[in-house]
Amino acid sequence: MTSLSKIFRNVYLDETRENSKPIQIRNLHVQEMMNTDEPLTLDVLTQERSKMIEEVNQEIAEKRSILTKDIEETKQYIEDQLNTWEEEKIAYQQQAYDEGFVQGLEEGRLKAQADMQNSLKLANDAMKTAHENAANYLQQQEQVILELAIRTAERIIATKLEENEELFLSIVKRGLKEAREMKEIKLYVSPAYFELVSNNREELSSIFPIDVPFMIFVDEDMNETDCYIETNHGRIVVSIDDQVQELRRKLVDILDSME
Fold first, then answer.
1. CA separation, residue 41 to residues 32, 36, 38, 54 (Å)
2. CA proximity to 156, closest of 240, 252, 249
């Protein structure tokens, strides 16, 4: 059986710990508490003691009930707070994931864009280099083709002149036609074609008015196919070599204009 002093001590400790409604400790002056004139017999004291124990136990039960309720409410509050925190934590994690995902997506987009720009630049540089190399190659080949064409033309002209001297005469005629407005005409040719030109002097002189002096001279220092015309306004060169060089210049001008 629990002693009365022990019960009172427990009640006092509970009161101090919980800071709740104070328990009124009754005065242990039994005579006053009993408020009776009856003599304090053992039975009376026992009954009073039982009554006080019952009251204390009831009060302890009430305090315990209140404390239990407070504990349950506190546990529920803590559980609610934990649940709230879990929900907020999940929300924060999702938010962080979303922000990280968006940031990662943006970084990936920027990296892909930079890679694409770099690839396009490399492709453009490669295309530009290929175009420049192709243009240089074509230009070199054009020069080679031009030189081959000129040499071929020279060989063809030389061959044609050997086969037909009249070809040289036709070249001289074209040169004289350029000087038909001049007042004095002097034609200089090499010894190789002097006889040919002289034999056709009448035909050549018919290009000019009858009052225009037309004279033919031989120049031993000239190349075989050279020929030029002296007029009162200057010299007109009609040699085969000069005609070929003029053809070369015109072809080069045409090639340059095509670039």
1. 15, 12, 8, 20
2. 240
